[in-house]
Amino acid sequence: MKTTSCLALTLVLLTVRPTSAVAQTTASSQKLPNATEATKLPTLPLYVSDQKTTHLVFPSPVTYVDLGSTGLIAAKATGSENIVRVKAASAGFGETNMTVLTTGGKLYSFVVNYQRSPRMVGIDLGTANGSADKGKLPTTALYVSDQKTTHLVFPYPVTYVDLGNSGIIAAKATGAENIVRVKSAGTRFPETNITVLTSNGKLYMFTVNYQHDPKVLSLDMGAASSQVTSSESGEAILSNSPIPQGNLDAYSKQALARGGSSAGESKNQLTVKCGDVGYKQETLFFPLHVANKSNVTYDVDFVKFYIQDKKVAKRTAEQAIEITPIYVYNGSQKKIDVKGKLEQVYVFKKFTIPDQKQLIIEVYEKGGGRNVKLHLANSDLLKARTFQ
To answer: Which UniProt keywords are listed (predicted)?
Structure first.
C-alpha cells in the first residue's frame, strides 16, 4: 500500500511540471534573429586638411550631410547639387566620421582623419566602387607668384572657385566669364589647391605651390582637357537642372540628330531652323541649326528666346517676356565659316505658351544686320519628343 502511494506521487509530480520550464524549452527550440546578421555598410577612408579643400562628387544630388564632430567643415559646392566640399576646421582633430545621403536613398559613410597634405583632394563616388583610389580625380600642377599673375582660360564660363587656403588670391578676369586670374598673397604659403567648376558641369582641380618666377603664366584648359578632370567623370549636376551634365549633352546630341522642323526661316543667305523640340524630366530641348550659305563669315552676337502676343493692337505696347536657358549645348561656338554650319541646343525648364501668344527665337549677327526670327506655337511644344 505504501509502495503504491509513492509511485502515484511520483507520477503526479512528473505530470505537473512547471509551465515556465515548458515555455523555456519551446523558446530555446526556436531560432531567434541574430543582430550580427545585419549587413554592415561599407565605409571609405577620407583624409582632409585645413590647407586644402577636398571635393566629393556623387552620382546623384545630395540631400543630407552629417558631420561627426566640429573638427570638420562641409557644404555643397556653389552651383552644383552633387558636389560636397570638405576641409578641417583647424590643424589636427580626433578621428571622426561623415555621412552623406543622396536622392534615391543611397547612403555614403566616411571615416575621416586629419592629414596636412592629403594625396587625394577629389573623389568621384560614382566610380569609387568601395575604393577611394578608384575614384581619385586627377589634378594639374600650378605654380604662382606674388610678383606675377597666372591666368587660367576655361572653355566655358566659371561658376565656382574654391581656394584651399588664404595664401592664394583668385578672381575672374574683368569682362571675361571664363578666365580666372591667380597669384600668391605673399612670398610663401603651404602647398594648397584650387578647384574650379564651369557652367557645363566640368570640375578642374589644381595643386598649387609658390614659385618666385613661374615659367608658365597662362593655361588653356580647353586645350589641356586630357590632363584635367574634364572627362566623363567628376561631372556636376547643375543646381538649375534636374538632369546630370553628361545626360544634358547626350540628349542634346540626340535632339540635333533627329532632324525634323518646328520652324525655319532664310534671309540674306542665312538659314535658321529649329528642329523637333525634345523633352525629358521637366526640361525642354530646342535644337537650332544655322547654315551660312554666303561668302562672308557670320559671327553670332546672341540668340534670344521670348514669348509675345501673336497680334498686337495699334497703339498698344508690345508685351515680350524673355526666357533664359539653363544650359546651351555647344554654346561656346560663335563663328560660322563661309558655307559653314552651327548646331546648338538651348535647354529650358519646362514651360508652355498661352494660345494667344507665340515663342520667338531670334539670332543676331555681331556687327551686322543679318538677323533671323523664328515663330513657334504652343502646339510645337506639346508635340515634344521624349528621349530614350
So the answer is: Signal
Q: State how far the Cα of 121 lies from the Cα of 339, in Å rounded to an integer.
A: 47
Give the list of residues 6+ apart from residue 226 with CB closer than 8 angstroms, or none: none
Total number of domains in the chain = 2
Residue 269: CA atoms inside 13 Å, Cβ hemisphere, count? Answer: 12
Please check whether residue 201 is in contact with residue 188, taking contact to mean a CB–CB distance below 8 angstroms: no
Using CA atoms, how far apart are residues 57 and 53, in angstroms rounded to an integer? 13
Q: What is the DSSP string of 267-318?
A: ETTEEEEE---EEETTEEEEEEEEEE-SSS-EEEEEEEEEEEESS--TT-PP
Of 192, 227, 262, the position where a domain reaches its end is 227
Helix (H, G, I), strand (E, B) or coil at 143: strand
Rounded to a whole number, what is the largest CA-CA distance in the chain? 133
Q: 16-32 pLDDT, tens per residue? A: 444 443 334 444 444 54
Identify the domain containing residue 185 by its residue range. 43-227
Q: Global pTM?
A: 0.59
The C-alpha cell at 366 is 555681331
Residues 272 and 343 in one domain: yes
Using CB atoms within 10 A of its CB, is residue 98 exposed (0-12), middle (13-18) or buried (19+)? buried
Q: Where does a domain end: 227, 255, 289?
A: 227
Same-domain status, 252 and 374: yes
Listed in sequence order, the residues at least 6 apart from 75 whose beta carbon sits closer than 8 Å to its beta carbon are 65, 84, 85
**Contact (CB, 8 A) for 46 and 89:** no
Residue 30 located in a structural domain: no
φ and ψ at 351, to 5 degrees? Answer: -150, 160
Query: Tell me: the pLDDT tens digits for 214-273?
Result: 999 999 887 655 443 333 445 666 666 777 767 888 899 999 998 788 888 888 899 999
Regarding whether 279 and 199 lie in a shared domain, the answer is no
Alpha-carbon gap, residue 361 to 307, rounded angstroms: 9
Q: Which residues contact 321 (CB under 8 A, 6 or more apart)?
A: 306, 307, 308
